[in-house]
Specification:
mainly beta, 319 residues, elongated
């Protein structure tokens, strides 16, 4: 004890942050966002050269694997009772008029956008770039590949102009790119390029392959269409045949039409529509799938999985 009497030490603690009860409640959401696949061209008359296959729609995922050479993506931390935009991209369209084929449309979830697949190339033409690139059409001169987005898919195939002159030895079309492989390129021979393989993702609890590229179309003379890439890619047309569309809700590219040996119109394959799949802990909240969207939910262990197959609208979660 000092001559001034006893002293008592008082310790004061001031928190830098104290909860107020008004902070936003968050939910962690895994996603698979696949865009629509690109279409393969058709042909209105025999022109000797097979058409390129459509590229697969871009694929972005936080579960198992993502598209292209990208690293697995990070789940989103979202606020409860808040609307987030979802758009499921349509597949590109084709017809018997070659120049009318189109790229696939983008798919969107909140801040995540996957790019539509590139359309396949016409005779003597290159494909279009996209989530995965479209395949080049058969040609009398070399045609380069069309690029894909590096974190979503791969390039389409190229052609080297083998047998230039077209009639009757035009080249086949090359394959569209897929989420895990480039489309097949074409040199000599009468078999068109295969579509690039898609990528397997297990967000639903089962492994499903998405975003395969479309196969190229055959040359004018007794050719074979290219196989569609695993994951919904459409097969390219053989001589005197029609191409196959990409599979709906996989983002598969459509197959290319043949270079026919008659004057009949031949169809290219439409691209397959995309899909948006969302996974979250069942205990963390309940999803509302808003007007304008077509979707359903299922459980997988401790998770709820919402699969949205068409439309544009909003989703939200509540505790």
């Amino acid at each position: 004890m000092s001559r001034f009497g006893s002293r008592t030490r008082v310790s004061t603690y001031t928190s830098a942050w104290m909860p107020t009860g008004d902070e936003p409640q968050l939910i962690t959401v895994d996603y698979l966002v696949v865009a629509g696949g690109g279409a393969g061209p058709g042909t209105a008359f025999g022109d000797g050269y097979g058409k390129g296959g459509g590229g697969a729609g871009g694929l972005r995922s936080t579960v198992t694997a993502t598209g292209g050479t990208g690293a697995l993506e990070t789940p989103l931390s979202l606020t409860l009772n808040t609307n987030y935009t979802v758009t499921v991209g349509a597949g590109g369209s084709s017809s018997t008029t070659g120049a009318s084929n189109t790229n696939g449309s983008d798919s969107v979830f909140s801040s995540i956008t996957s790019t539509g697949g590139g359309k396949g190339g016409l005779s003597d033409g290159v494909g279009s770039s996209g989530g995965s690139g479209g395949g080049a059409g058969g040609s009398s001169s070399a045609k380069s590949s069309a690029s894909g987005n590096s974190n979503q898919g791969y390039a389409g195939g190229s052609t080297d102009g083998y047998g230039g002159g077209g009639f009757p030895n035009g080249t086949c079309g090359s394959g569209g790119g897929g989420a895990s492989a480039v489309g097949g390129s074409v040199g000599s021979g009468t078999t068109a390029g295969a579509g690039g393989a898609g990528r397997a993702v297990s967000i639903t609890g089962s492994s499903v392959t998405y975003a395969g590229g479309g196969g190229g179309g055959a040359t004018r003379v007794s050719g074979s269409g290219g196989a569609g890439g695993s994951g919904g890619g459409g097969t390219g047309a053989a001589t005197n045949g029609n191409a196959v569309a990409g599979t709906a809700n996989t983002g598969g590219g459509g197959g290319g039409a043949p270079g026919d040996n008659d004057t009949s119109a031949r169809s290219g394959g439409n691209g397959g529509s995309g899909v948006v799949i969302l996974r979250y802990l069942t205990s963390a909240g309940t999803i509302t799938i808003g007007a304008g969207l077509t979707g359903s939910t299922a459980t997988s262990g401790s998770y709820t999985v919402a699969t949205i197959t068409a439309g544009t609208g909003n989703v939200s979660w509540a505790a």
